[in-house]
Structure formats: structure tokens, C-alpha cells
Amino acid sequence: MACAGALALAGEPSLARTFRAADTQAADYPTVQALRLMDQLVRERTGGRHSIDVFHSRQLGEEKETIEQTRVGAIDINRVNAAPLASFAPEANVLAIPFLFRSVEHLHRVLDGPIGEAILDSFGRHGFIGLAFYDSGARSIYNSLRPVRSPADLAGLRLRVQQSDVMVEMVRALGAEPVALPYGQVLTGLATRLVDGAENNWPSYVTTGHAKLAPFYSLTEHVMTPEVVVMSQRAWEALSPEDQAIFREAARESSRAMRAQWQQWEERARREAVSGGATMLTVDKASFEAAVGPMVEQLLSGPGMKTLVERIRETR
Prior knowledge:
This protein is an alpha/beta fold. The protein has two domains: 162 residues, Bacterial extracellular solute-binding protein, family 7 (D-Maltodextrin-Binding Protein, domain 2); 131 residues, D-Maltodextrin-Binding Protein, domain 2 (3-Layer(aba) Sandwich), CATH 3.40.190.170. The protein has 15 helices and eleven strands. A five-stranded mixed β-sheet has the order 2-1-3-10-4. The protein has a four-stranded mixed β-sheet with strand order 8-5-9-11. A two-stranded parallel ribbon has the order 6-7. Helix 2 runs antiparallel to helix 12. The longest helix has 35 residues. The chain is globular.
């Protein structure tokens, strides 16, 4: 009788509730729009029992703070970049390795296949349920002082980096001084000369106003670290298996929609930056890759990391 009761309970839908989702980007940013699409899909497929309230523009805190809150269950769903997430889930470090992905197409093949699935699954060991990846484009270096075309040009520059050990070590290997700052403090940092520059993708460079203060944008494209949609284990375990499947598939569908929107945003942001006075600089990519080579080799010494990176590099 006890077993029959447990099976009957497992088949029941989870209690209706509204889930809190965090995103540090502005209301119209592609990741925020994707989370809103996820909300729409969840509402439709649960008959309105569940919904997602999206808190954008750092309303629930900076990225590092929201990751901590998600792990303890204070935030239910979170869109974060894989680089700072690696401080809590070390397996995400592989996605922040410089010059690992050959192209956006290569990145997508990795994320959409068994490697991406294994990385998402690995977050469960650290209090997160990995639901899907969102695009974040290629990150490049920009600064307010001078053109940068090789690592030698970075000497003496103070560059803001994400709160990530890998990103700190990467900028140090390139010869600049890394300054780990929350995303929301970068504009003030540039305005007050706390930092001379930063590194990010085209849409973030433009929508934050960084392009007006740091007009030299060097196309290093050093990492293509994706965004990740994660859920707290507490919120996930409160869902029935049927509802878990609905949330996971809604996240995956929102990811596919986000990719199409992201490409349009990148192209528009690039045009806006250049028309607004930014200088787009080609660089000697081989020299940047060589500069971070020893640092990458050290990263590969971690347990299982070398095998995983080889699998990624072999993906065609």
C-alpha cells in the first residue's frame, strides 16, 4: 500500500507556483527575452499552474551573488555566464579556455551534443540543475587609451575581467593587469579610470555604454564562453517528473530562439559601435594564442580536463 501511494503521488503534478529567475542584463537583451519565452512555454504547457517571474538588470544582485543565491535556493532559475559559474562548478572551466572553439558553429556542435549534455549534468554535483546553454558570442578586448593589436600593446593596461580565476589568469598571461569587477561596476570603473578597459562581446560593449568610454575594440575573440541557464536543486526537486521535463524542454526551446535573435543583435551592435566612433582593430591572433599557451597547459593538468578538451577539439 505504501508503494502504491508513493507511485500515485509521483504521478501528480507539482503544486502551482511562480519561480523567480535572475538575469543581470537589461530588459530587452536576448537572454532576458529568452527567459520570458521560457516563462510563456511553461505557462502554456502546465495549464497556467507554473510561471516564471524574470528579474532583469541585476535586480536580484550581481552575477556572483545570484549564483550563490541559486545554490541555496533563494533564486529558482538563473542565467549566468559559464566563467563565473566555474567558481562554484569547476567543470564549467573548460568552456572558458581561451581559443578552444574554432567558430560559433564548432561551439554549437559541442554544446548540442553529448559533451554539452555531460557538462550540464555535472552541475548537479554542486547544487545546480543545468537546463540549457544560451549564446554569448566571442569576447574581445577594448580599452580607452590606445590601439591593441598584439599582447605587447597590453603592457600596463588595467583590464576588467569577470570574477573568474581562469579569466584573471588569462589577462595576466597576456601582459595586462586584471581587475575582477562585477558587471554592473564596469562603466563606473571606466569613467573613473579604475580600469583602462575590459573584454566582452559586441552587444554588451554597446548596451552598457562602454563603447563611448573605451573606443578601441580589438578583435581578439579569445573566448566564446556561453551563458548557462541553471535551476536550484530545491526548486527542481519540488517539481514532478512531468513538470521537470516541461521546464527542461522550455529552456532548450528558448535557447534555439535566442540564437537567432543573438546573431541579429551582434550585427546591429557592431554597426552602432563603429558609427558611434569606435575603432575596430584586427589583431595578430596567433600571438595572443601563444601568450596564453602555458596557462592553458596548466589548466589541462586538472582531472579529466585534457581528455575533455581533446574531445572538444576533435568535434567536427
